[in-house]
Amino acid sequence: MDTFTQPKITGYRQLNEQEAELMNEIKAKAAEDKRERRRLKRLALSETPTKEEWIKRCAARFKERVQDCTDSEALALAHLNWDFNAEDNWHWPDSRKNPEDCADSEMSYWGDDE
Fold this sequence. Notes:
This protein is an all-alpha fold and 114 residues long. It has helices at residues 17-46, 51-65, 71-85, 99-108. 61% of the residues lie in helices and 0% in strands.
């Protein structure tokens, strides 16, 4: 590591070599995290999820909104929802991109059986 003595900055002390290395590691990790956040944001905004991801997210929405919904019930509902929405008669062109909206739409048709 190159040795560099930083000019005195009012209110700050000179870092020792170990502290400078840690600071550089932290800054590198922060930059890496920022790149990853940007990548995930681009992915969420621009890409259609895979079938597996779509079904996983749809099932999670059913579990979140339906009291006592088991994992297998949620997965079955998500698969049915995928199959229904895979037909050519889409009501909303972007609905495949948002499995949560598809699950919410499906649940909006459910009546109270009691």
